[in-house]
Specification:
two-stranded antiparallel sheet, mainly beta, 1 helix
Length: 223
């Protein structure tokens, strides 16, 4: 009997505590807010933003819209407008340009290049050249077999026993294997005794245990 009495009291206290907790939790939710679907806490209603445990109405400037992001100002500028001092000002797109994917800035159309004063001027492509997005300074590059010289493309003079090489920025060509560059020409490599061509194919090195000295391969001392 006593046991049942204490059990009843415990159940009553538990129910009362749960009821009071529910009231406290409900009171903790500010105006213009709602409880989260999962877990504890609350979120502001749409059109409101949390600040100092309150939900304040979001003031949306002209040319903006409510943002779904939980953090930040609660609004974003429309495509074609850019935020400046809590306003959304239109992006000025100069002639021969277009809005980029972000909608907050612009890019010059192909064949045009941006200047320091934010204009898009036509790229002057020289003869034997072509438009290139990889060339940020000029906007153009030379055809294969030509190299840049000032504002023109001059033909690369490839000597005998050489081939065009885009990796050789100074000359534009490289000697064939077994030849070395000498005074803008390719000279055949004469291998001394106990030597072989190195990994590049344009020079030589000594076989082990020989060491290179001038144009010969000498045996290392102590071997």
């Amino acid at each position: 009997m006593i046991k049942n009495k204490y059990q009843g009291m415990f159940c009553a206290i538990f129910v009362l505590f749960a009821f009071i907790s529910g009231i406290v939790c409900a009171e903790d939710v500010p105006e213009n807010a709602h409880n989260k679907r999962y877990g504890s806490g609350w979120d502001c209603d749409q059109g409101y933003i949390a600040k100092n445990k309150e939900c304040l109405k979001i003031v949306i400037p002209q040319n903006a819209y409510l943002s779904d992001y939980a953090y930040g100002k609660g609004w974003e500028c429309l495509h074609g407008f850019k935020e400046e001092k809590n306003n959304c000002n239109p992006v000025h797109v100069p002639e021969n340009a277009f809005l980029n994917m972000s909608g907050e800035t612009w890019e010059c159309a192909r064949g045009y290049q941006q200047t320091k004063d934010n204009r898009c001027v036509k790229v002057d492509v020289p003869e034997h050249g072509y438009l290139s997005d990889q060339s940020y300074t000029t906007g153009w590059a030379c055809d294969r077999g030509y190299r840049v010289q000032d504002d023109t493309c001059v033909q690369i003079k490839v000597p005998a026993h050489a081939f065009l090489d885009d990796g050789s920025y100074d000359t534009g060509w490289q000697c064939e294997r077994g030849y070395e560059e000498v005074a803008q020409s390719c000279k055949k490599i004469i291998l001394p005794e106990n030597a072989r061509l190195d990994y590049s194919g344009n020079d030589w090195e000594c076989n082990r245990p020989f060491k290179r000295k001038d144009n010969t391969c000498l045996r290392s001392k102590g071997r």
